[in-house]
Amino acid sequence: METTNHPRADAPRTLLLVDDDEPFRERLARAMEKRGFDVTTAGNLNDAQTLAREVRPTYAVLDLRLADGSGLDIVAVLRETRPDCRIVMLTAYGNIATAVAAVKAGAVDYLSKPADADAVEAALMHMGGDSALPPPPSDPMPADRVRWEHIQRVFEQCGRNVSETARRLKMHRRTLQRILAKHAPRG
Fold first, then answer.
1. Which of the residues in the chain have pLDDT under 70?
2. In the prediction, which pLDDT does 48 show?
3. In this structure, which topology does domain 14-125 adopt according to CATH?
4. Domain boundaries, the chain
5. What pTM was computed for the model?
6. Which residues carry this modification: 4-aspartylphosphate (predicted)?
7. Which CATH architecture fits 143-181?
8. Are 140 and 149 within 8 A, CB to CB?
9. b/e burial code for range 94-106 (CB count within 10 A of at least 16 → b)
């Protein structure tokens, strides 16, 4: 069973680009336009879902973590309106749990930010059957990073429900919220 869909060769190269970091979004949009894509941009979840229904893009590049939600919530709309849409998730919070969640939701690739336009185009146009997950790290992660990764994995398994995640991790809900609001520890 082939799980990776490809737009027809004669399909327009329409691209929905969703990121709440405006300078990054605009810079990537210009670079993708130079590569022949007709780019539509959005900076939040609501606008992105509306544009996904209106534009029905053949390609999408989605930021995983938006100020008002998750890029994973846009994937369902894209799959509903255009099942062959090629979706790439971008995130500054890269970890294996969210990569797996993105691929299960329907993304064909997962790139860490800041990704350049060449990497984004390569991921969008990759026609192999396998989606690319991040390679395993060559150096072991520090303990605080391992802890953060574990919390993120449980958070994704709980459907991003803070209360349920806090119960499973046996920690106070507010403590968990503070941890989730922070960037990943360097490592």
1. 1-11, 93-99, 127-141, 184-187
2. 92
3. Rossmann fold (3.40.50)
4. 14-125, 143-181
5. 0.63
6. 63
7. Orthogonal Bundle (1.10)
8. no
9. bbbbbbebbbebb
